[in-house]
Amino acid sequence: MSITPDSERLSDPTGLSDQAREVLLRVWDPIGIREFLVDDYDAVRDEYDSYLAPVVNMIKEGAGEREIENYLFEIETKLMHRRRSRERAASAATLLCALRNQPA
C-alpha cells in the first residue's frame, strides 16, 4: 500500500468511512488536532481525510492490524516527519479492523 494521500471521495452507504474518520481523529491523531474537537469539530473533521480512502479500502480488503498500523506509522514518520511511538497507530489499527465486523 502506497503512503501517498488519496483525496478520492468515498461512496459509502454503510458509514464505514465516517466511523474510520472518527478513529483517525480521536485515536490516531498524529498532529494533535483532537485538542480542537470540543470547540470546532466541523473545522477539523476533514483533517485526515486524505488518508481515509486508503484506510477504508484496507479495511474492506481484509488488511490485518499490523498492515494498517504500518501504513499509519509510515504516514506519521515519512510524510509528516513525526517521531513518536507506534502506540497510537497500533490502537487505531485495532479499532479500524474491528469496524469490519460491525453490522451494516
How would you portray this structure in words?
This protein is mainly alpha-helical and 104 residues long. The chain has one domain. The protein has five helices and no strands. It has helices spanning 16-28, 37-44, 52-60, 65-79, 87-99. α4 packs across α5. The longest helix is centred in the C-terminal third of the chain and has 15 residues, at 65-79. The radius of gyration is 13 Å and the shape is globular. Mean pLDDT is 84; it is low at 4-10.
Mean of the pLDDT scores? 84
Query: How would you spell out the order of helices and strands?
Result: HHHHH
- How many beta-strand elements? 0
Helix content: 55-70%
Rg (C-alpha, Å): 13 Å
Quickly count the domains: 1
Distance between the first and last residues' Cα: 26 Å
Q: What structural class do helix, strand and pairing data support? A: mainly alpha
Keywords:
104 residues, mainly alpha, 0% strand, globular
Short description:
The protein is mostly helical.
